Amino acid sequence: MITELADPKYALSGKNKDAALKSKQLGNQCFSNADYAKALDCYTQALREAPLDTASDMESNLVVATLYINRATVLHKMSLIVECLRDCTRALQICPSYAKVKISFSG
What we know:
Strand content: under 5%
Low-confidence stretches: none
Number of strands: 0
Distance between the termini: 29 Å
Number of helices: 7
Helix content: over 70%
Radius of gyration: 13 Å
Oligomer: single chain
Structural class: mainly alpha
């Protein structure tokens, strides 16, 4: 699992926004229930399914950036700090002005 987290080719291989959002919602539920391992799986699955437009589809890119931040939050809760920071970096690479990343780790 950790190897896949570090390899972007695994994280962004799918193209189904609806399936990605469904996995994200399940991840959100698991996170709310403090089931971090399951939330990590759900957010990772959502990243596999989420489309990333390398051109200019800001909405799709923001969805992917949000998934990375959600997963980073889970990784932080699991004390996987290097992986957490890696996902934060990915979110900022996709959406450089993504304020949630900057706020989350500024204090």
